[in-house]
Amino acid sequence: MRIGIAGCGIRGQLFARALSGEPGVELVGMCDPSAGARERAAAVFDGPILSSHGELIASGLDALIVATPDFAHRAVAVDAAAAGLQLMIEKPIATSAEDAAAIVSAVESAGVSCFVAFENRWNPVFRKVRRAVAAGELGDIVSVTAVLSNTYFVPTQMLSWAASSSPAWFLMPHVLDLAMWIADAAPRSVVARGRRGELASRGVDTWDAVHALFELGESAIANLRTEWVLPEGRPSIVDFRVDVTGTRGSFSIDNSDQGVRVASPKRFSTVGLLPEEIDGEEQSMAAWMVRSWARGLLSGKPVGPDARHGALITRAVELAHRSAADSTALAVR
Q: Considering only CA atoms, which of 331, 41, 298 is closest in space to residue 290?
C-alpha cells in the first residue's frame, strides 16, 4: 500500500512516524507548501518531501492522508479522490458544510473510501465506555458532557493558522463525534453561546470560547465546552474531561494527562498525553488509528467513520458557530 501524506506539520509528522516500518505499507512521500514545515518533516522522514499535493499524487499512490490545516482540506481531498486514491482526512473533514459536501461528492463519484480521523475512538478508556453502554450497563444515555479546551499557547504559538479556525473547529469535532459514538445517536438540534475579544486583542481574530448544547437522537443531550483562553500557568495545555450519565450508571473521565505530576524547583507540570515510543514504535491513539486505517485498506475492510459522518459533524459545528453568533437554536439537517 503506497501512501502519501499531505501536510508536514505536527500531525503529518506523527503519522509518518507511526507508519514507519508498518508491514505492507510504503510511505512514498510527503508534501507541504511551507519550506519551514518541509524542513522540520525531514527530521522524521528521509523520503521525498514535495511542495505540492499535485506532485505527490503524481508520484504514484494508492492512498493519501490529508493532514493540512483544517480549512485547507477540500482541494487536496477532491484532487486525490479524482485520482482514485483512498483517503484519510484529519478531523474536521472541512470547516464549512459546502467544502464537506464537495469532498463527499468527490469521494462517492470516484468510488473510493474516505476515513475521517476521530482518534478518540482508539482511546482504550472511551472504548470501555462504549462497550459498557452497548451492553446496557448504563441504561439509557441521558447526557454526555465534555470539556475540551486549550491554553493560550495553542492559538497564539502552536497554530500559525488559528485565526482561520476556532476552539470549536479545532476541538468540538472530537467531542461531538465521541458523544455520538458513545450514545449511538445523531445530533438533531443545537443551541450555542460564545465569546470573542481576548484572542482578537492578542492578534488572533477568532472565538475565545464556544459552548454548545446538542440534542442527540430522541432523548440524550451532549453538552460540549471548548475554549482557547485557559491560562498558560496550567500544568497541561489541554483540559479534557468527559462525563457520561445513563439511567442506571455513569462514567467520569479526566483525560487531560496520564495522572503523573512532575515538580521541579521552578514549575509544576504533567508528563502529558501520549505519544510515547516503545520498542522503536510510536504509541498513541493517533498512531493506533492510522495503523488501523492502513491495515483496513490492506485487508479490504476500510474502517469508519466515513465522509458522510464527517460532513454531518462539520454541518453541526458550523451551526453551533451560527447559533453562538446570533443566539438562536438551530435544527441539524
A: 298
Burial code of 156-194, b = ≥16 C-beta within 10 A, e = fewer?
beebeebebbbbbbbbbbbbbbbbbbbbebebebbbbeb
C-alpha cell at 304: 469508519
Cis peptide before 124 (omega within 30 of 0): no
- Residue 240: Cβ within 10 Å count: 20
For 11, 60, 72, 176, 228, the CA distances from 53, given in Å and listed in that order, are: 16, 12, 12, 30, 30
Cα angle, residue 114 at apex, residues 187 and 42 outer, rounded to 5° = 115
pLDDT at residue 134 greater than cutoff 90: yes
User: What is the rounded average pLDDT of the residues 155-183?
Assistant: 97
The whole model's pTM is what? Answer: 0.94
Give the list of residues 6+ apart from residue 330 with CB closer than 8 angstroms, or none.
189, 190, 191, 319, 322, 323
Give the pLDDT confidence score for residue 282 in this predicted structure: 80
Say if residues 312 and 216 touch (Cβ distance below 8 Å).
no
Strand order in the sheet with 187-196: 250-254, 238-246, 141-150, 220-227, 207-216, 187-196, 329-331
> What is the C-alpha separation between 149 and 175, in angstroms, rounded?
11
Q: Which three cell numbers mark 108?
A: 462517492
